[in-house]
Amino acid sequence: MENLKKTILFSSLFSLMVMACGSSGQSEAVPEPPPGKQTGDVTIYTTTAARTQQFKKSFVDFGSGANMSPRTIRLNEQQRYQTMDGFGSAITGSTAYNLLKMTQADRTKFLQETFSVTDGMGQSYIRIAIGCSDFSLSEYTLNDQEGIANFALQEEETKYVIPILKEILAINPNIKILGSPWTAPKWMKVADLTNLAPYDSWTGGHLNPKFYQDYATYFVKWIQAMQAAGIAIHAVTPQNEPLNAGNSASMFMYWNEQRDFVRDALGPKLQQAGLRTKIYAFDHNYNYDNMSSQDDYPVKIYEDAKAASYFAGAAYHNYGGDKAELLDIHGKAPEKELIFTETSIGTWNTGQNLGRRLLEDMKEVALGTVNNWSRAVIVWNLMLDSERGPNREGGCQTCFGAVDINMSDYKTITKNSHYFVIGHLSSVVKPGAVRIGTEGFTEQGVVLSAFKNPDNSYAVVLANEQTKNTRITFTDGSKYFSYDIPAQSVVSYTWK
């Protein structure tokens, strides 16, 4: 996380329009589905910026006869893009703490709604910290006593994060988990790579090259310890936000350091341990925090063939720069994967105002990254409390969660834009789906992505920015249906 979350305001005329119309509830109403219609050829989920529908499930049937509508969007399976890995959020120490404050019945209900592939959104990807993050209950690593033999999981893992992960895996055993460290143990850090002076601080510093092998072992021990606890680790990044030394906790890791660490230590150590955990480079902002020497960070790493062989691809955040960077990196390294691993809402971007955030986040974070070759979309904290915590000095104290739970009862939940944009993807786009092309009708203010799922079902996720309803017909080439898309809404469709 960026310290104080570098303020990003997508302050556009569209945003102001959504505030005026979406949050005021004056957008056009759409008739509810006929009473009693509980099935249909096409399953639809709808969320409006005005909250008149919040992930509302409905159904329509395929049309009969010939489709003559000029407002038809055709799916084109011949045009194939990336394979999708999944969509989800971060289970931080703070999130796990809040979830465990709920009653078992309430927590199970919420987790079912969020992660069940049959009865909920089917969220399919989780990010966790390796050691502490800025949303942990304290600052710590898994090896604070010098010597790699002293590695051990700590209370935050054993008491909070692992129990919650086990409950989630019981609901969705196929969920992918990505791990990222915020800092190496302090005894492994130096102030700079020239003098190599010891650096006794959670914040900033660099990894001492003489500890590359020990730190790689630290990753191996963590993956194995999580496996022993029943938690399979799908992927890791070597460092969260490697260009941000101001966060609590944090550590610099410039591209040449990450190249050397993975090439000479982490990659070989994972292989020697028989671990197939993926490694993603970078894990930071589109604009490389305006450090020109760090531009194209992952591409610079890939220029070393041995280092490149250990990286599946690169991960990005959006606290600076533009999503077009994903297209640029894909163009320079099309053989490597891209995933989007962190974004937050907060007081700086009116994070709890669904009227303002829903469509902007769908366009910029969800559909925006997917349409720019990202295989995954992961937002920050799944759940924070009504005081934006538990949080810690030096970390983000102005962030909201994908959902926020009221501290007065640990029961009342406010669902924010990030919860809905992830749910609209995960509910209809399954891991292993392929993004496919569309052709035909287009309309200003309508943004969408289309997919073919592994079970041969189709999925479309669409955002309608317009202040009026719009009727569109969709066809896969053999079947078609029409739907009145509400003003200022996000809609997901799936059919076979």
Automatic annotation (TrEMBL):
<keyword id="KW-0378">Hydrolase</keyword>
<protein>
    <submittedName>
        <fullName>Glycoside hydrolase family 30 beta sandwich domain-containing protein</fullName>
    </submittedName>
</protein>
<keyword id="KW-0326">Glycosidase</keyword>
<comment type="similarity">
    <text>Belongs to the glycosyl hydrolase 30 family.</text>
</comment>
<dbReference type="GO" id="GO:0016787">
    <property type="term" value="F:hydrolase activity"/>
</dbReference>
<dbReference type="InterPro" id="IPR033453">
    <property type="entry name" value="Glyco_hydro_30_TIM-barrel"/>
</dbReference>
<dbReference type="InterPro" id="IPR001139">
    <property type="entry name" value="Glyco_hydro_30"/>
</dbReference>
<dbReference type="InterPro" id="IPR017853">
    <property type="entry name" value="GH"/>
</dbReference>
<feature type="signal peptide">
    <location>
        <begin position="1"/>
        <end position="20"/>
    </location>
</feature>
<keyword id="KW-0732">Signal</keyword>
<dbReference type="InterPro" id="IPR033452">
    <property type="entry name" value="GH30_C"/>
</dbReference>
<dbReference type="Pfam" id="PF17189">
    <property type="entry name" value="Glyco_hydro_30C"/>
</dbReference>
<dbReference type="InterPro" id="IPR013780">
    <property type="entry name" value="Glyco_hydro_b"/>
</dbReference>
<feature type="domain" description="Glycosyl hydrolase family 30 beta sandwich">
    <location>
        <begin position="432"/>
        <end position="493"/>
    </location>
</feature>
<dbReference type="Pfam" id="PF02055">
    <property type="entry name" value="Glyco_hydro_30"/>
</dbReference>
<feature type="domain" description="Glycosyl hydrolase family 30 TIM-barrel">
    <location>
        <begin position="85"/>
        <end position="427"/>
    </location>
</feature>
